[in-house]
Design brief:
The protein is an alpha+beta fold and 144 residues long. Helix content is 38%, strand content 26%. The protein is built from 3 helices and 5 strands; from the N terminus they run αβββαββα. Strands 1-2-3-5-4 form a 5-stranded antiparallel β-sheet.
């Protein structure tokens, strides 16, 4: 078993614990996908198993204008674990943490910040500036 395989297995178990899941489904790329409000976020193990990357395409079809960039910049001012940026017409949200010291509560905090930001900021930018979000409405992990 490679280091990457071990890291993916570790992150999968942490996700199961963090969100009290009976089963964790891994997509063909090796990522864990979670719907989060209007966003879908992915938990990926990158850099040969050294980092966990939680990321989401918060909105698509957005024209990159000064007002949009102001919204993104304002979001970055209050983000702690994550960052937001425009890539072409996509609003991206991402955060990374080292796998080696990762705990379930760390993964939950990262998923919460990336997912919450993708849900709120993606919906805001898509509504105000045009574009679309991944889901019309969806569940928030851990919210009952």
């Amino acid at each position: 078993m490679s280091y990457l395989d071990m890291a993916r297995s570790h992150v999968k178990e942490l996700a199961r614990e963090a969100f009290e899941l009976a089963e964790v489904v891994v997509d063909p790329d090796g990522d864990l996908a979670f719907p989060f409000g209007t966003a879908v976020l992915y938990v990926s193990v990158v850099t040969d198993g050294r980092l966990v990357r939680v990321w989401a395409r918060a909105a698509d079809g957005i024209a990159v204008t000064k007002p949009v960039l102001r919204e993104v910049n304002d979001a970055n001012a209050w983000l702690v674990l994550a960052r937001a940026w425009m890539h072409g017409g996509a609003l991206m949200i991402e955060g990374c943490l080292p796998v080696e010291t990762l705990r379930a509560e760390d993964l939950r905090a990262l998923v919460s910040e990336v997912g919450g930001t993708a849900d709120r900021l993606g919906a805001l930018v898509a509504t105000v500036h045009g574009g679309k979000v991944a889901l019309p409405v969806g569940p928030v992990p851990g919210a009952e």
